[in-house]
User: Fold this.
Amino acid sequence: MSIDWKTYDPAPFYDELIASRGSPRPVARRLTDYLRSLDDNELQIRKQAADHAILEMGISFTVYSEGENIDRAWPFDIVPRVIPKNEWVGVEAGLVQRLTALNLFIDDVYNEQKIFRDGVMPAYVLEHSRNFREQCRGIHPPHGVWAHICGSDLVRDGDGTLYVLEDNLRVPSGVSYMLENREVTKRVFPEVFENSSILPVDEYPTQLFDMLASISPRPQDYPEIVVLTPGIFNSAYFEHSFLAQRMGAELVEGADLVVGDDDCVYMRTIQGLERVDVIYRRVDDAFIDPEEFNPESLLGVRGLMRAWRKGNVGLANAPGSGVADDKVIYAFVPAMIKYYLDQDPIIPNVPTWLCVNDEHRGYVLGHLEQLVVKPANESGGYGMLVGPHASKKQRAEFAQLIRNDPRNYIAQPTLSLSVAPTLCDEGLEPRHLDLRPFVLQGVRTDVTAGGLTRVAMRRGSLVVNSSQGGGSKDTWIVDEEA
Amino acid sequence: MLSRVAERVYWLARYVERAENTARMIISFHLVSLDMPKTVQLSWKGLVAVTGNEHVFDAHYQREDERNCVKFLVADHYNPSSVLSSLKAARENVRTTRDLVPSEAWEVVNELYLFARDNIDNGIGKRARYQFLTEIVQRCQTLTGLLAGCMSHDAAYDFIRLGRNLERADMTSRQIDVGAIRYLKKTADPTPYDGLLWTGILRSQSGFQMYRQHVKRRINGVDVVRFLLQDVPFPRAVAHSLRYVQEALERLPRNELPLRLVMQARRHALGADVDQLIAEDRLHGFIDTLQQDIGEIHTAVVDTWFRIEKAA
Assistant:
């Protein structure tokens, strides 16, 4: 039996492919028609082909369990998510606008701090910021860019509006899976690619290389670019080695690098010491230089900050960029866009209440059962309260946490995330998803065509993290006019 | 190529070769022991002596019997060169260089370690020992063949060849030494079983048949030593291994010091007059010097490529 789109019912959620029972969105029509042409058996064969390709290509991610780390096959759903190009053009412009403002903000924070003097943002935000690095004051990185690689999470609400849920400006992961998802989908559904105009994604490693080369202190030469990984035990090690391979860069660990008496960075090779121009570091600020940050760190390089401050090496992302990961600062991004660019934000923020603000806090404490409360500086969904799903006791505990440290909490309405048809054991079913596009900023700014779509594989679940059973899909930006 | 990566593939090769050689040595001694009449006491401790880890053994065992010695050589984790320790170390080394080494190689090494770990008791007891150790040897050979056939013969591969052949030269020379110490002193009055022991040593190097074809003389200590030390065509002979060490070194950058040392060691091995060394009871001293030569080559490799500390 083949897929009957009349029995697939996404209600009450916004569906990425199906407008309402039996009627696919125009941009998805070629795909849904094609899927309907496959019978159940054929669909399962495609799914097995995808699983097989993932094993064969060695696409894995690492999960930790009981002290051991295990490489797992990357969880993948074969049904792509489709976004029309005319919508994406707006999203792209919105992301460029946002990243431009965020980089102006970070540069301002470490230099003049005009935005605080002009009263656009209250100074207390910075005083209690956990990722503000005093060591970065007075530094002017090339092109004024601090966050060269950003992964902003987008979600679509019930009425179809796309919002930015958060910005990841420290060491965002996932782009390698975006590329691999496309490879797998091309193997599984080559026929659909023939008939549709799907924007390619595989320019990314080239763009990443060019961006990194653009911050080399020796622009006239062939730059020596390396990817700095914490090592094989890191959950994103697959991505680190993937990107190094695709760029033809060395994958190095802290111990491979040394800062010389001339304050330049060298790597230890069998040829001797070779000068390194740019480091794409996938190690957190706190560990990159034991001389200036965590003195216990074995992951970093002694003297790296010294070399960077003197302009002898490019670091992406620049240390200190994480200051803008703070969810309190996130709340001010629309104001930043207005202040630095004198523009209205193209992509809206999710409405956010700041618990540090007396009035907001009053509202939050009175409406905990409707809100999602998040700590300002955690990532990966840790330490959150999902009000509607929490017990009375949990809400009371959270209220106390908020009163004790209001600066550390923000609250947002519980969004009803959009869904898309996903191949489950029971056939195609709606599952919630989000989207992480990646933005590269150097001399120029590039946005990926689409990004990494993460999908909650369990019915009703909003959790899209791979380590918690989430999966992913290929993301198609389709040019309907082509 | 990064120094760290070079170091890891070099040690990967050494550990695999070490596991294979240790397994071979036990197999041959095991077979010899089955041939020997009950009245002849074999010293299993002699095998421990070959590996140079007697002090570690003494710290953990009182009785130097077959079971303890074999357990120590095959399974003990506090013996850094036991078969299991070597394979575990090999696995860790390939795990961290997976972007460089063919993925099949990772699978072979991973499965090899898991096989050894899960069946280690078979290696200790007498009944399944031969089968278990033979399988270890075969799987090690599979890896060697796989790397030769599937990996680009670039600098990384040169470090693998370097490690494998240096380890092999080291192990073969150790075996000559032990054979020599125990049995050559009695050359004036050979016991009827010396032939068996030398055959055992040859067998451990898969050299029995090759020796037969090339030397064509009755098995005797002097000829066996000469064969294992100086026979250039035989792949497990010291002279052959050192030649391949030299070939690998020649392809690497900044190779002056290690290259000079390996040429010196080769001259040393090839120039020896084995008859005279044995007649004058100087073989042990000679092997000692050869071992030092091999140690110096290793140190020079480490200093040249793996320990690059100072700014240029």
